[in-house]
Design brief:
This protein is α+β, with helices and mostly antiparallel strands. The protein is built from 1 helix and 8 strands. A 6-stranded antiparallel barrel has the order 3-4-5-8-7-6.
Length: 129
């Protein structure tokens, strides 16, 4: 996994570190068996943001995306994603944000492990820059 670029977004009560990753993606198989792949834009302990190709119809806020596969480096984590925001941008396509819910305790451990690894890498990079 490449070292992340780190963007800090400050929430009202706590800091939420969001990590932007190169080459990470989300695969979603909908109820009729169609598969769609989205670019993972950033990830945090609280959720993630992903981008849609410009000509694709975006999901609605509140959409529950079952059977989601999150791919970060060589890691694959299964879960579901609840879309919490949809932002249109004519330049970059549509950006969606959501809450990721790992499918199993092993998937939860994998998700938290990715975040912990990104946090360590970011702390190391900031100490050495």
């Amino acid at each position: 996994m490449k070292l992340p670029k780190v963007a800090i977004r400050r929430g009202s009560e706590r800091r939420d570190d969001r990590f932007m990753l190169d080459g990470a993606k989300i695969e979603w198989r909908n109820d009729v068996g169609e598969s769609r792949t989205f670019q993972l834009l950033d990830i945090s302990r609280r959720g993630l943001n992903f981008g849609l190709e410009t000509d694709a119809a975006p999901p609605s806020e509140g959409t529950e995306m079952e059977e989601v596969l999150l791919q970060v480096g060589e890691r694959e984590i299964h879960g579901r994603l609840v879309v919490t925001q949809v932002l249109d941008s004519t330049v970059r396509g549509t950006t969606c944000g959501g809450e990721f819910h790992p499918a199993s305790p092993d998937d939860e451990d994998g998700y938290q492990s990715i975040i912990a690894s990104l946090e360590r890498d970011a702390a190391f990079r900031s100490m050495n820059s």
